[in-house]
Description:
- It is a single chain.
- By secondary structure, the protein is α+β, with helices and mostly antiparallel strands.
- The chain has helices spanning about 1-15, 55-70, 70-75, 85-100, 155-160, 165-175, 215-220, 225-230, 240-245, 245-255, 300, and strands at about 30-40, 40-50, 110-120, 125-135, 140-145, 185-195, 195-205, 205-215, 270-275, 280-285, 290-295, 295, 305-310, 315-320, 325-330, 335-340, 345-350, 355-360, 375-385, 390-395, 400-405, 405-409.
- The strands form 4 sheets. It has a 9-stranded antiparallel sheet with strand order 13-14-15-16-17-18-19-20-21, with no helix packed on it. A 5-stranded mixed sheet has the order 1-2-3-4-5. A 5-stranded antiparallel sheet has the order 12-11-10-9-22.
- The radius of gyration is 23 Å and the shape is globular.
Amino acid sequence: MKKNFIKLAAIMLGAMMTACGSSDKAAEGLTFETYEKNGDATFIKVDIPQGDEQKVQSVTTAIREIMNGSQIVKEFGEMKADGTLKEVIDSCVQSVDPVITSGEYGPIQALLFIENSYLSDVAAVFDVSDGVYGMGSPDYYERVVRLSDGHIMTLDELTTIKTEDLEAIVRNHFEEPDNVNLIDSFYCLMPATADSCRVKWEISRAYRGDALIPLADIEQYLTPEAKEMFKATPIPLQKKQEEAENDTQEEAEVSEAYLPGRGDLGELRGPVKEVKYAEWSCTYNEQGQLTHENGQSLKSIFPGGITRDENGRLKDCNADGYGSRSYTYNDKGLPTAIYESGEGSTYVYDDDGYVVEETTTIAPEMGDDEGEPETIKSRYTIVEKDDYGNWTKRKDQDGNVVTRTITYY
């Protein structure tokens, strides 16, 4: 079983590590329309290609292959051999849903997402979420589709990476790796900079660590076939057809949705997925809600329960006897105070919603009954911002510089 996981992870690594460039070239030949079909306990969502007939046929062939090989179809249903992709999707839901809702396997759900995330003139990559699950979430992986002939690339076409290679990469780039010989998942989350990828590793599908790794340290494992396929800079994905019908209204809605104060993002703006500091990281879902800190789920950090306010923002988090965390917000949805077990910070914002002043209170050391809380006040100046307006480098009044890496949906 471990060997199979490693092969799958290697495919993901080969697929994603080369997508770190950018281009002004317009995407040619293909657009994608998202089609969704819901049953009582089954949900399938597929980005269906449109445009150039030959490319559409190639990608459609591969999507059919992905669907036919998915867990939910292989174990619980069947797929139509002919018909349009929409008809095939409808038939899959009709086939799988009665089995899932029968109760024979307990209270479970079936999900299959096939979403285009990378496109060039020679290749398309789809993010695929596939699985039948009760608690937790389904399997997540990437598949590579070649536009030239529509086939899904195999491990041998992508990489020559071996178990010992994975172990060596983790030992060289991750702090204090434990049980490194048990690695069963290792892949690039998404491009982080022009010359590096954020790579994640897992044991038994449980998060263990992630780090920025230079592309040069990974590229050696790609086969000539994979290098040839990905050597061209990825072209920007075109807007899906249904989004393009009313650009002005859509852009206005997106702009408003991505203002600071959305969900738990605070001063962050845009479709933020992860914020990574030198020794800290935060992960958010697409609604802007905080889901993980340092790779650990918020639910596991606060097993005593998490409550949110009427706007869906974090309010109180209970660590079940080991402390708690509370949030206070202003009328713009920006946190003005965050306290945890007697310590915390208050925040002052400028007119654009950026933190300009932070006052941190630190409790005396345990056992110091006579000690007084320490108060530290910091004022910040933004040095660099990214395209969404989020700061990537800032300094305080003493010249101390903090940098962070932000990835987006």
